[in-house]
Backbone:
């Protein structure tokens, strides 16, 4: 299992590990290795939560093949409807 | 206009009013104009001339109007032009709505529907029929054409099952990339960004800007959904602030419904306000009341994720502890099993011992019984040989005080007390007479048991 990945993959992997640890099918060495891997994902996930900064991109071009950083409008246009 | 007759007519009309021809001054009518001009009118008009003249009168002489009536025979040609008749209980009016205007109609009106049509008048020269050229058509009934179109499309989508609750997909709990279809300059996109930044800043937002109003909006929105779906997003938000039903129309178009339905990832619709329900809302996997609500539905809250991580951490620890515990338990089990087996063996041996001991005891008892029986038999045999049987036959045995047998006369000195043993007891006797005078024992009374000192004396 790759250690890299986003929050979703890490969380899912930890879930898998917990499920493995809750079963009887792993031997002790394996259990220890899984535990360590799980703790690693946990730390990385916590780091992601603490340090992440929102990335907003915009797909441009007729086919939407290019992405560029999105400049959010300061004030939404009124023609887009009322604010909530 | 290139037609000579018309030019002529128009020229006269202008000459009459002194101004360029307009709907206002055309009210005078061609014949009046002709008369007033003093010029000779053509004596015989061609049909074409008449129709053209009348057409001009109609086009210039009548302003654009709203006309209310009942729609009948509405037909949409392949060309996109629509033809229909407006009628009331006594009159009919032919109408045409050309492609450009007809394309703005949300749907075709129902037969017999009460509508109002805005337009100007003209004459179809080839047939000599006058008609209303409709620029707008609105339903008189509540909700109007938009409602009708909405209901029609909804019925069709319902029939296809596209709005079924069973079709709705669950949202990914922790999306990495969220696609947004909305106006890139609107308030909706800003709301979605703000909510996401606050709740889940690790998420990547991918915006595909579209128009969200006007005739092209529907197609653009549909295309944007498809584009985002092909760009590895985990979920798509279609967002727009509130507006009138007409404003939101793009989100009520079939193309949008189809794009949402065929999206490989779940689509959340956050269009308008709570009260605005669009077709997009109905087909989407989740309908959020507003763009902000859509964003909240799509991304988890950071605090919730922290809780989940804490929980996972605890479970990881417990899992490992559980592994250790389960091994200890298995060890205990094995030990218990061993003990139980050992104990069972001891018990088996003990049982065997008990069994064998009782067997042995049985054997012993049997032997003892056998011996006892033999003894009894022996005793009986001995009995037969004992002097008692002789006594029973009537003999008696004299015995001195010490139990010795008195056999001879010499054994009986005078006055000797002795016992005479008979079959059922002993009789106390005394030897009568002097010693040496011969035995003349006088037995005590027979049949009595021993009575010491009560022997008879001779003399």
Residues:
């Amino acid at each position: 299992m790759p250690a890299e990945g986003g929050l979703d993959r890490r969380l899912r992997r930890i879930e898998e590990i917990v499920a493995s640890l809750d079963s009887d099918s792993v031997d002790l060495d394996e259990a220890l290795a899984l535990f360590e891997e799980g703790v690693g994902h946990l730390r990385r996930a916590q780091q992601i939560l603490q340090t992440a900064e929102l990335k907003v991109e915009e797909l441009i071009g007729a086919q939407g093949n290019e992405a560029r950083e999105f400049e959010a409008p300061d004030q939404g246009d009124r023609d887009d409807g009322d604010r909530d | 206009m290139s037609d000579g007759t018309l030019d002529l007519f128009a020229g006269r009309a202008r000459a009459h009013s002194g101004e360029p021809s307009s709907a206002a001054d055309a009210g005078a009518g061609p014949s009046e104009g002709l008369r007033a001009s003093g010029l000779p009118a053509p004596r015989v008009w061609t049909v074409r001339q008449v129709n053209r003249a009348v057409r001009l009168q109609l086009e210039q002489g009548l302003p654009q109007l709203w006309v209310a009536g009942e729609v009948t025979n509405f037909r949409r040609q392949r060309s996109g032009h629509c033809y229909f008749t407006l009628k009331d209980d006594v009159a009919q009016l032919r109408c045409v709505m050309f492609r450009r205007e007809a394309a703005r109609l949300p749907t075709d009106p129902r037969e017999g529907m009460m509508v109002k049509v805005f337009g100007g008048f003209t004459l179809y020269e080839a047939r000599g029929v006058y008609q209303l050229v409709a620029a707008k058509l609105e339903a008189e009934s509540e909700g109007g054409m938009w409602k009708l179109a909405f209901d029609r499309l909804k019925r069709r989508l319902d029939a296809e099952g596209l709005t079924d609750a069973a079709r709705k997909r669950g949202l990914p709990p922790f999306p990495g990339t969220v696609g947004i279809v909305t106006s890139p300059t609107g308030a909706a996109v800003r709301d979605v960004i703000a909510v996401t930044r606050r709740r889940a800043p690790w998420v990547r937002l991918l915006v595909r800007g579209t128009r969200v109003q006007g005739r092209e909006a529907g197609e653009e929105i549909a295309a944007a959904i498809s584009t985002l779906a092909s760009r590895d997003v985990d979920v798509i938000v279609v967002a727009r602030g509130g507006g009138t039903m007409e404003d939101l129309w793009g989100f009520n178009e079939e193309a949008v419904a189809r794009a949402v339905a065929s999206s490989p990832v779940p689509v959340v619709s956050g269009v308008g306000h709570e009260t605005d329900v669009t077709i997009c809302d109905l087909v989407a996997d989740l309908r959020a009341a507003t763009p902000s609500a859509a964003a909240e539905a799509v991304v988890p809250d950071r605090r919730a994720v922290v809780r989940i991580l804490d929980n996972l951490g605890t479970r990881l620890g417990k899992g490992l502890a559980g592994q250790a515990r389960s091994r200890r338990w298995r060890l205990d089990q094995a030990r218990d099993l061993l003990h139980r087996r050992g104990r069972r063996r001891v018990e088996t041996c003990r049982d065997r011992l008990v069994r064998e001991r009782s067997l042995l005891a049985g054997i012993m008892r049997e032997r003892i019984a056998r011996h006892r029986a033999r003894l009894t038999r022996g005793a009986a045999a001995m009995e037969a040989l004992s002097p008692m049987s002789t006594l029973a036959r009537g003999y008696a045995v004299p015995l001195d005080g010490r139990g010795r047998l008195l056999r001879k006369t010499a054994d009986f000195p005078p006055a000797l007390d002795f016992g005479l043993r008979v079959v059922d007891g002993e009789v106390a006797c005394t030897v009568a007479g002097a010693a040496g005078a011969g035995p003349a024992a006088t037995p005590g009374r027979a049949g009595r048991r021993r009575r010491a000192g009560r022997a008879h004396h001779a003399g």
About this structure: Helices of chain A lie at 7-22, 28-51. The first helix of chain A runs from residue 7 to 22. Residues 7-72 of chain A form one domain. The beta strands of chain A are 55-60, 66-69.
